[in-house]
Amino acid sequence: MTDVKLFRKADQDLVVRANGAAVQGLVNTSFSSRIGAGIGVFENCRMEWTVTYDEVLFILEGEFTLRTKQGVFKAGPGDTLWIPEGTWLIYEADAPVTFFYSVAPVTGSPTTGIAQSHPTAPADSSAA
User: What domains are defined for the chain?
Assistant: First the structure.
């Protein structure tokens, strides 16, 4: 068992790269054996992929498009997408979109399936 972890937004590297994405697998195999999670930003991004895990996307800011064999799903702030393992898809975002994601199993995702360290903040001991 590990300790509670607090990941501050200001400590995360969410600068969009040349591929149109910045994704941080904050909850990863370095301390979780079951679930992975993180935050990401897509901009001018079109990524084709077949997911090897179950995934939940929660859109925080911007407009996000998910293309699947089932059809096109447009999601905006406050919307949640459930994507089952084995789904062929295309993630798309023209303008910046910020999202939270969670995957299971943790080892299925390229961003959470590797042990990596991210800055964390300590608990506020004065609030106890």
Answer: 12-112 (2.60.120.10)
